[in-house]
Here is the input.
Amino acid sequence: MMKRGMLIDVDHMDRLTFRDTMTMTEQQGYPVISGHVGLVDASTAGGARRHEGNLKDDEVKRILAGGGMASLITLDINGDGLAHIGMLPDFIADLRQPDLAPLMNSAESYIRMWEQAVAKSTSVP
Here is the structure.
């Protein structure tokens, strides 16, 4: 996949495969993506949303350190309170308190990550 400049999505990998994939991509300076993931530390302890598919903080940091992206799904809008899609703008406005630059620039970041993957593909042995 790296030789072809493809994006590697690490979601749904077991822990061993994730670690091996990260080791291989880190050696090449190749970015990976986690397209839809929850966080172990942000999940309700013992709750239904806490499961092995979630990433640990250090795993997300590895993805980001390599130039990759993680698309977090720590909130379940359907279960946590967004009654209808018309409320989404208000929800986003409420989130503006913290720095939302990563969210607002995510499309551009995705393109830059893909460009990095394609550039690195030529040097993969």
